[in-house]
Design goal:
CATH architecture of chain A: 3-Layer(aba) Sandwich
CATH topology of chain B: Translation Initiation Factor IF3
Strand order of the largest sheet of chain B: 1-2-4-3
CATH superfamily of chain A: DsrEFH-like
CATH architecture of chain B: 2-Layer Sandwich
Number of strands of chain B: 4
Order of helices and strands of chain B: EHEHEE
Radius of gyration of chain B: 11 Å
Radius of gyration of chain A: 14 Å
Distance between the termini of chain B: 22 Å
CATH class of chain A: Alpha Beta
Helix content of chain B: 25-40%
Order of helices and strands of chain A: EHEHEHEHE
Distance between the termini of chain A: 20 Å
Largest sheet of chain A: 5 strands, parallel
CATH class of chain B: Alpha Beta
Strand content of chain B: 25-35%
Helix content of chain A: 25-40%
Shape of chain B: globular
Oligomer: heterodimer
Chain lengths: 127, 80
């Protein structure tokens, strides 16, 4: 949830998952850039998005190019700058996942919290 | 306007792609004192619009961007 400590708020929404690696990293790039601008940033993973956050997946996939860096590198780059990661329970169930299957630091929210974050954000960018 | 001040730090981001120059600049500017100058070297072709946006958002002053061949020299003064 927003702390209102940044110079603005941007919420990214990632709906694509492991079957589409070319779409896996860009939200993390943009989120990291926003965080570097002292903006408060969250990424909400829904539909197939939560599959990208699996502990046993983040080191195995990555975008094309980028010297072969795995997705885990770009996730850490974003979270080190303060980007926060959110999922919701129905999206986990859709992908047969539990919160324990995901990397540390992912926060669980629900539809009401997501909509509140969206309405309070300066921009919502959906992928 | 030529920059006569010696930068407190030179950050070499040559060869790095978006968003690395922005991220490294944001980290580096916090390691110099307010009022000091950071010089960023970058070859990313988007560095000029990126640094204009980043500096106006963060309140750090963009003093100049000089291009020398493929290399952009970006001079930023940390806000105080």
């Amino acid at each position: 949830m927003w702390t209102d400590e940044g110079e603005g708020k941007v919420l990214y929404v990632q709906t694509h998952g492991v079957t589409d690696p070319g779409r896996c990293a860009t939200p993390f790039f943009l989120a990291a850039s926003a965080a570097a601008m002292e903006v408060e940033v969250g990424i909400y993973f829904t539909m197939y998005g939560p599959t990208l956050l699996q502990k046993d997946v983040v080191d195995k996939i990555g975008p094309k190019g980028d010297q072969g860096m795995p997705l885990a590198h770009f996730i850490k780059q974003a979270t080190d700058l303060g980007v926060r990661l959110y999922v919701c329970q129905p999206s986990l169930e859709l992908n047969d996942l539990a919160l324990e299957d995901l990397i540390d630091g992912v926060e669980m929210i629900g539809g009401a919290a997501f909509n509140d974050m969206a309405m309070r954000a300066d921009a919502v960018v959906s992928f | 306007m030529p920059i006569t001040e010696t930068p407190a730090q030179v950050l070499d981001c040559k060869g790095l792609q978006c968003p690395m120059p922005v991220i490294k600049t944001a980290q580096a500017i916090k390691t110099i004192e307010p009022g000091q100058v950071l010089e960023l070297l970058a070859t990313d072709p988007g560095v000029e619009p990126d640094m204009k946006a980043w500096s106006s958002r963060t309140g750090n002053e963009l003093l100049a961007i000089d291009q020398e061949g493929e290399v952009f020299h970006v001079f930023l003064r940390r806000n105080g």
